[in-house]
Design goal:
Layout (H helix, E strand, L loop, with lengths): L1 E6 L12 H8 L4 E6 L12 E2 L9 E2 L1 H13 L3 H5 L3 E10 L2 H8 L3 E5 L5 E2 L1 H6 L3 E4 L9 H12 L9 H5 L18 E2 L2 E2 L9 H19 L11 H10 L12
Parallel strand pairs: 1-2, 1-6, 4-7, 5-6, 5-8
Antiparallel strand pairs: 3-4, 9-10
Helix pairs in contact: 4-6, 8-9
Length: 256
């Protein structure tokens, strides 16, 4: 996966792809992160990338010329088929909420271009005629799109084959699986009088699987009940949720 990040502040990404799993993925050539300084595509000697709003108003607006030029150069460097299937994402508090559906969509693309919004916003022509997606990571406003870009790169990279140890590790994560993850424990079994559940140390894998599934269902019911309608639930899952008080109506998708 090739990530191309357009920003006015490339120094914000120093070291961002050099540690932990991301660092190893870059070293192994599984992903690449190309940080592009938008000011390099400006047309004047001052590197002017923003300007006042037409009609007046507070805050500066990111100009269209350098942003269009940067994106077009990136896309022109890709094979034609890849360029046609590369999302161009604009970070914006007005965008669609970043979620697992978008992670899956972006991870399947040959490359990803991310435009980091800044100042009061970007020229509307960038949003309507250049970006293919407008994405927000939450209902709050940040000083710029650099942190959202990092979030997207990290989340998408995890679904590139071999970036994370095994595919099973990723698929069992909270949200990815459709439910919140069950509780996790490691040694020591007894820490300050707080004991790991005996069942996890029993060696009875069928019982452990059932306990984990029910813990996952219960945690989702208590903390994120909004996830349950789209989750893949078996008849036994629905029966257990009914015991917890979830109003099962029989329309939830069945697990395979």
């Amino acid at each position: 996966m090739r990530f191309h990040i357009l920003t006015l502040f490339p120094e914000a990404f120093a070291g961002a792809a050099e540690y932990s799993m991301m660092g190893r993925a870059v070293q192994r050539g599984l992903v690449s992160v190309n940080v592009v300084d938008i000011r390099q595509f400006t047309e004047d000697r001052h590197g002017t990338a923003d300007d006042y709003q037409f009609g007046g108003g507070p805050g500066m607006v990111l100009k269209p010329e350098p942003t269009f030029a940067a994106v077009e150069k990136i896309l022109a460097s890709l094979p034609a088929d890849d360029a046609a299937n590369t999302p161009v994402v604009l970070t914006s508090p007005q965008g669609s909420r970043f979620n697992q559906r978008l992670v899956d969509e972006f991870a399947a693309a040959p490359a990803l271009v991310i435009i980091c919004g800044h100042y009061a916003g970007v020229d509307e022509r960038i949003r309507t005629n250049l970006a293919t997606h407008e994405v927000s990571i939450g209902d709050y406003v940040l000083t710029g799109g650099e942190l959202p870009a990092m979030v997207m790169v990290d989340a998408v990279s995890r679904f590139i084959p071999d970036v994370v140890g095994s595919a099973e590790n990723v698929q069992e994560d909270s949200i990815t699986s459709g439910l919140l993850q069950h509780p996790l424990y490691t040694r020591p079994a007894d820490f300050r009088g707080m004991e790991a559940p005996e069942i996890l140390r029993s060696g009875n894998h069928a019982a452990i699987d059932q306990w984990r599934r029910r813990q996952s269902l219960e945690r989702t019911f208590r903390l994120r009940p909004d996830l349950l309608p789209a989750a893949h639930l078996s008849n036994s899952d629905r029966a257990y949720l009914a015991q917890l008080g979830w109003p099962v109506d029989g329309n939830e998708p069945l697990a395979e």
